[in-house]
Design brief:
Chains A, B: GO terms for molecular function: alcohol dehydrogenase (NAD+) activity; metal ion binding. Chains A, B: This is Iron-containing alcohol dehydrogenase. Chains A, B: InterPro entries: ADH_Fe/GldA, ADH_Fe_C, Alcohol_dehydrogenase_Fe. Chains A, B: Keywords: Oxidoreductase. 2 copies of one chain form a homodimer. Chain A is α/β, with parallel strands linked by helices. The first copy, chain A, has 2 domains: 168 residues, 3-Layer(aba) Sandwich (Rossmann fold); 172 residues, Dehydroquinate synthase-like, alpha domain (Up-down Bundle), CATH 1.20.1090.10. The first copy, chain A, is 43% helix and 11% strand. The first copy, chain A, has a 6-stranded parallel beta sheet, covered by helices on one side. In chain A, a hairpin with a 4-residue loop joins strand 8 and strand 9. In chain A, helix 5 packs parallel to helix 7. The longest helix of chain A is centred in the C-terminal third of the chain and has 20 residues. The interface between A and B is large, with 43 and 44 residues. Strand 1 of chain A pairs antiparallel with strand 2 of chain B, so a sheet runs across the interface.
């Protein structure tokens, strides 16, 4: 079933000139249940020498001997366990980069991110900053990175974010929540092993899956859509509906949600996200609300923009008995709302994709605040 | 609509061990009507120096001033027009490589293939052989290429072959029709400009589109299928049905068939083709029949293997008033049949994908000859 697929004849770039983005794809991907056991073979030819370690940045959910025994460590390789309780931050990236630079006499052979969107985005950002001067916040924006990142590998352990294929790494900075969008951001290698998602708690599974679902809705209804993006978005949307509304074996469901995340990420990569993401960024900047649940908190109130998408979302919420927190914005001050509104309205390409070139006349600060007040 | 999607729990490699292929994807892609005008900007940073030309290998269908005026030539760049009347040959690759080596003091900056499967496969093979010793026939098979190919760009002008994303380049050699399958085969850059397909003759449009349709049927029903391959195959199949059985505007149809080819190619790249391709290779080896029409000639007689696929194929043939030649194999000798049967049965991964590990007990030389005799 396709929803809201208004293919408008706009081009896949924010300026609407007839220039198209030359889109970087992940050049190597391995897919399969148990494929994590092949990681050592994949990394071996990429080792520069015995002094240049691989740094594994891993969600601390996996901090146990059973997992460590499977990591293909050699020489001075290091595993850094990192909490994904909070959204990734520019200062956190800078600290990791400084720590790695200080500890090793030469640059690592590469960075391996293992986890959800937080860990994948941290791994991308660290690999960029290890090869580029300055601080992470200097690169938040579009196409500000000058030199290729260090070799970096992404291994998602939860499905939905699309971080495994995207050309961005979204970071909370001192002044904004914004991605480092560049051709050097995508991973050099992705390993898709659906077995990792066996241990994901149900709420997190749902929220992160909805990140993918919302990517598809925002991409398929956006003004930047083209046939490339549409074909990926439609497939990801179908897979989301199989997973969240269908009745399929749990093993197939894991496989399919992993592919939904992949295709959904491809779809937004060549178009853009929309209202839900623009608002969710404000929410997590001010309140530190994580991206997956933040999207859901926002999306439930967007029926005027995405009527069919919100109807499907409500069905999925019902089917899986998900209860979202209420009154999240109840006690905020006017200053708080101003901060969220400013962060959100600063994401111009997202609004232009969602509402067209005249978006500023449609989405005023006042209207946006009313939406935030509902959450 | 999904057809024959028997997801069996086999792994995506011919040996059925739990090792998975680490699949190389095209690392850069640009999509859009008119995007050919951006080729110059894309090539500029890839120029090694003014003595290292770009060699444009172009289907001689485009041998005219209007086309030449659009090719972004600089310095000593060269356009070589090549006929796609015949399937690409190993000796043709060797001759092109010798010609380029002789003419230029250093290796080219890169090879740009512009055309259908023939030109794309020639461009891939020439870029491999310019960086690897020996003859093209030495590399026909799986993973025999040792060194990376020269930078190479693929620009399909007709949709369906999947050559723009595949890790093979299929060549007629002195002893076999077989691909150079390797991680170095895929293009470094693909440019997808649907405008090129405006000028494709209707029969050719249909036959080449059916190459994609048949890829999907063979991938989705094969024993090598996994969820990765399945998601691409299903999307390509949907797009084929929109294009060949639906009622959509011609501009959308061009866009969608281009994406069908892309996704269909991705699907077989991580699984394998089947009976139609195995038989079609024999047909073109012996009779020089081109791949697109060869697939159709074979596929019409494969209802016992692909009942739903053949039924859809027949509907598409009817809708577009396609008349296939008859009696193609009527005058062949027993020796001719032996040659075709041997070529075809030599493609073991294709048969194993189609019929499972015990394929040799299912597809005997006698049974295969009976199928060829129907054509």
């Amino acid at each position: 079933m396709k929803i809201e697929s208004n293919l408008k004849k706009h081009k896949a770039n924010p300026t609407n000139k007839t220039t198209y983005r030359n889109f970087p794809m992940v050049p190597k991907v391995i897919f399969g249940s148990g494929s994590f056991s092949q990681l050592g073979d994949i990394l071996l030819p990429m080792r520069k020498n015995s002094e240049a370690p691989f740094i594994f940045m891993v969600d601390d959910f996996f901090e146990n001997q059973q997992f460590l025994a499977q990591v293909p460590l050699m020489f001075n390789d290091e595993v850094i366990f990192i909490s994904a309780e909070e959204e990734p931050k520019t200062a956190q990236v800078d600290a990791l980069v400084a720590q790695i630079r200080e500890k090793y006499s030469e640059l690592p052979s590469g960075i391996i991110g293992i986890g959800g969107g937080t860990l994948l985005d941290l791994a991308k950002a660290v690999s960029i900053l290890l090869n580029n001067k300055g601080l992470a916040k200097d690169y938040q924006g579009w196409d500000l990175v000058n030199k290729p990142a260090l070799y970096h590998v992404g291994i998602p352990t939860i499905s939905g974010t699309g971080a495994e294929v995207s050309r961005t790494t979204v970071l909370l900075g001192p002044e904004k929540k914004l991605g480092i969008n560049s051709d050097f951001t995508p991973f050099d290698q992705v390993l898709l092993d659906p077995d990792f998602s066996k241990t994901v708690p149900k709420d997190q599974w749902f929220y992160t899956g909805m990140d993918c679902f919302i990517h598809c809705v925002e991409s398929l209804t956006g003004t930047y859509l083209n046939a490339f993006s549409q074909s990926y978005g439609e497939k990801a949307m179908e897979l989301c509906q199989e997973v969240f509304l269908g009745d399929i074996p749990v093993e197939d469901s894991r496989d399919k949600l992993m592919m939904a995340s992949w295709h959904g990420g491809m779809s937004i990569a060549y178009s853009q996200v929309g209202v839900a993401h623009a608002m969710s960024y404000g929410l997590s900047y001010l309140l530190g609300i994580k991206h997956g649940i933040g999207n859901c908190l926002v999306f439930q109130h967007l029926e005027e923009f995405y009527p069919k998408g919100v109807a499907l979302f409500n069905k999925m919420m019902d089917k899986h008995n998900i209860q979202l927190p209420k009154g999240v914005c109840a006690d905020l001050t006017q200053n708080d709302f101003d901060v969220m509104v400013n962060i959100s309205l600063g994401l111009e390409p997202l609004w232009e994709n969602a509402l067209g070139k005249d978006w500023k006349t449609i989405m005023t600060p006042e209207r946006l605040q009313v939406l935030y007040e509902k959450i």
